[in-house]
Write a structure and sequence with these properties.
4-stranded antiparallel sheet
Length: 174
């Protein structure tokens, strides 16, 4: 299994004071043309993911590249794995299950230097990136008026914003 990571080149920065780049793929749907990847990335790094008899990945459904680690979600096992930037397994993070400190599935992940956070609609769990221990659990019932986390936007300061709509046809709230 190989995971590709791109780093961005200078120029072509999106507006709105962002360090991120925006490639407008929607405008090219009916206007087929070639683009040069070199306009958007100065380097592509292929990272082979180490697998062995005790660590096999099947069907990667998502990943997040942090500063110090890569995080990979395996669809088959619904497990979150922490990998070194060289693709070596560091540890499995958290456990799948129904207990308060477990998750049923993983819908999205976010990491910073000290933690990794996962979300699946009914719970947001933050783990310490080094120890793998739980730092915080947030459930919809912890926030007045929230029944389920419909959509999550992780913010750089460790907070998050959630889109809330309690019933079909009701007004959505952020």
């Amino acid at each position: 299994i190989i995971l590709g990571i791109c780093s961005c080149a200078s120029g072509n920065k999106a507006a709105m004071n962002s360090d991120k780049y925006v490639i407008d793929f929607a405008s090219t749907l009916n206007n087929e043309s070639s683009i040069d990847l070199s306009n958007y990335a100065s380097e592509i790094q292929y990272i082979p993911i180490e697998t062995n008899d005790s660590f096999l990945l099947a069907d990667i459904m998502g990943f997040h590249a942090g500063d110090d680690y890569l995080y990979v979600i395996c669809r088959k096992t619904q497990s979150l794995y922490q990998l070194s930037t060289e693709g070596k397994l560091v540890k499995k993070i958290g456990n799948r299950g129904r207990a308060k400190n477990e998750y049923l599935a993983i819908r999205s992940i976010y990491s910073d230097k000290s933690s990794v956070t996962l979300e699946f609609g009914r719970k947001i769990i933050t783990y310490n990136a080094v120890s793998g221990e739980i730092e915080r659990i947030c459930e919809p019932s912890d926030i007045k008026g929230i029944e389920v986390f419909k959509s999550i936007l992780f913010l750089d300061n460790g907070s998050f914003a959630t889109l809330n709509g309690s019933e079909e046809g009701t007004e959505n709230q952020l």
